[in-house]
Amino acid sequence: MSGSPLILATTTSTVDSGLLDALIPRFERETGITVKTIGAGSGMAIKMGKMGNADVLLVHSPDEETLLMKEGSGTNRQAVMHNDFILCGSAKDPANVRSATNATEAFRRIARTQALFISRGDRSGTHVKELSLWPATGETLSNLWYLESGQGMGATLMIANQKDAYTLADRATFLAFRDKLNLVILSEGDAKLRNPYHVIEVNPAKHPKVNAAGAKAFSTFLRSAETQQAIAGFGKSRFGQSLFFPDAQSKY
Fold first, then answer.
1. How many CA atoms lie within 13 A of 121 on its CB side?
2. Could you tell me the pTM of the whole model?
C-alpha cells in the first residue's frame, strides 16, 4: 500500500462494536488504500470534516449531518445502515422504566425520581439523540442525578454499570460489551430511538487537500452488495442477532 492513508472519522460505536475491524482489512486489500480510523464520536467526526481534517465520515447524527451538507463541507451523503438506541440500567430499575410505554415516559420517570443517569456529554450522535428526548418530558435536568462522562459509549456503559445508573446506548455497543455488564435493556422499540448511519465524503471543492478519490472508494465499498451483506451478518454468530441492518437502498 502506498500514498497517504485515508482518514476516516467515525463514531465510537462502529469501533467499539468491532464492525470496522471486520470491514476495513477487506477494503485495504481490495483497493491498496490504508485507512487511519479516528473513533471520536459523531460530533467530533463532523467537526473534523468541517475543518478538512478527515477525508470521509461514517456518522449517526442526522441533524448535524444536514448542517454539514448545507455549509458545503460534505458531499455525497449516503445511507449505509441503521440500528437503534436502547435505554439500559440496573435490573433493580428504581424509576420503574421497564413498564413505561414509550421513550418519553421512560425518561420522564428517571427525571421525576431523580434516578442516576450517565450521559456521554460529548456531542456524539448518541448524546445528541439523548438531549433531544428530555424536552418532551417537561422535566429539568439536575447535576444531582444527571452526570456527564465525557467519554465514548463503551466507557460510559462501564461507568453506568459501576454506579447502577441508567444510560442511553446504541444497541451494537451494548451487545459488544454485554459480557462485561450487569445492565439490562429497560426501554426499546420506540420510533424515536431509530439510529441511522450515513457515509459522507468531505468536499474537495472546499478542502482541496482531502483524499477525494479514497473517500469515494470507501463510500462505494460501504454501499456495495458484498459489504451490505457483511453488515447484515455482523454479530449473528456471537450475539445471535445482527448489530446493524443494511440501508444502502434506503432513503431514510
1. 14
2. 0.85
